[in-house]
Every structure is written in structure tokens, then in C-alpha cells.
Amino acid sequence: MASMNVSLPDPMRDYVQKRIDKGHYASVSDYVRDLIRRDQADTENEQRWLSSLDASVEEAVEELESGGGRELGAFCRELTSEIEAQGHQTPLQ
Question: What DSSP string runs through 71-83?
């Protein structure tokens, strides 16, 4: 296993030591490994989310290019009319 040296300001070092003293981690190395694992998981989740978003946008563009979808202004006007028909005030009134 490789090693790395890390410099921390005193307040951060003290915080890590408190986490170890409370039994949350066995050592500084254990703490850093946990942070790295969490960061890796967050990065992977973010990449999955972005890939899903890209696919969704691509699907929407394809739908629009094939004649699907609706014009936003018309949709908003229809929605506003439906809300008003139900007796609700629109924010602009």
C-alpha cells in the first residue's frame, strides 16, 4: 500500500483526531480512505445523473425534431386557463 503525506491546518487536524477519539475511525488513514470512497461514490453518482440527463435531453430533441412536443407559450396559456377554471388565482393577477 502506498503512502502520502498530507498537511492540515491545526483545526482540521484536531477535528480528525476528535473523530478518531470518539471511535468513528480507527486512524487518520481510515478517515482519509472513507472520505475518498465517499468522494468516488459521489462522483460516480453525479456521472450517472449527467448521463441520464444527456439521454433525456437527446430524447426530447429527437421528439421535437420528429414533430412531437408542444410550444411552451401555448402550453403555459392552456395550463393557466385550466387553473383559472378551477377557481385559483394566477400569481400575475
Answer: -HHHHHHHHHHHH
